[in-house]
Design goal:
Blueprint lengths: L1 H6 L4 E4 L4 E3 L7 E6 L2 E6 L5 E7 L4 E2 L1 H6 L5 E4 L3 E6 L1 H10 L3 H25 L2 H12 L1 E2 L5 E3 L3 H8 L3 H13 L3 E4 L2 E4 L2 H8 L8
Antiparallel strand pairs: 1-8, 2-7, 3-6, 3-8, 4-5, 4-7, 9-10, 10-12, 11-12
Length: 208
Amino acid sequence: MWQEQLGSGVDETHVTAGALILRAGQVPRIALVMAGIVRVFISTPLGRQMTIRYARSGDLVGLSPYLAGTDQWNAEAITDVSVKVFTFDHVRSAGAHDPELPWRIAQHVAVVMVEALRTVADASGQPITVRVARHLREMALRGIDGRTVVHISHQRLADAVGTVREVVSRELTALRADGVIDRTAGAVRVIDEDRLASLAAGQSTLRR
């Protein structure tokens, strides 16, 4: 939908994994994700990161903070991504030709806010195993061999979860011992997707 309404005539930009597409303190931008996974987050005064949402192909990032007039949001490429970046003038021009666009934008902002509230609730109330499992599922991509893989370092995963590296390393070790994942250099391979989904939903616990 966004590609048809906003992406026409805008060139794609390629961003490598780990780079920021949006950076706090800079002029807000709006980006349409064409391929890859993007993590949207804010940083707390204590230096921790709080993930707001993950965006994949067809999702918009940056529209909510732009409309809210804040420059405190960041967007990080979890994988190599392709995006189309445009300004609000582009959005306004598209809206002049499509009367349904403002309603769809309102729906988009509402969805982002719901996701943000869920993240805050998870960070304050869910066990760390649930949080790590959820973030692994959100970051996962299916490889050419059919396996689900998360290309992420322990530190970047810790940043996404909002904890420290040692805690994430402990949880990954427990997940591996339980047969849920396997680890390689710079990546986590999911062995048991159903079990990971159950842990992410809080429906089971690890056999530590």
